[in-house]
Fold:
Amino acid sequence: MLETEAGIISMRDGTDEIIKTKLYGEIEYFERQYRIINDYLAGNEDYCLEIVDTLQGLRDTLNKISMHILTLYTLEGQKTKITWASLFANIDNTLETLRGAPDSKPRPAIQLAMNISEPKIEEILSYLLTLKKSLQ
Structure:
């Protein structure tokens, strides 16, 4: 998921702290979006009308998280590679499909996107929760 030449990110100056704070907030927002999607996939119909927007938000939030992580590592002079591109591609394809066929049922398409991604969204969430703890 995240490969680095060196281990832990050390926070040196104000820029690092700003990014750290933003990253923490984005991870919390990602968690909330993930819970909504997960509840929807489990059969909860409360989110049916806004699930496509929530999926787009989850994708956008993960993109912001990726940028913050890359920025932190760059500031530290470290190289990193984020390997959740397949999740981005699968979500993008799902969003395109759902917007192109508004009468289609989003649950199977979203479930497929989450299941065929490597790493799985649960693995990404686990990594992000660990990262969030290290930011406190």
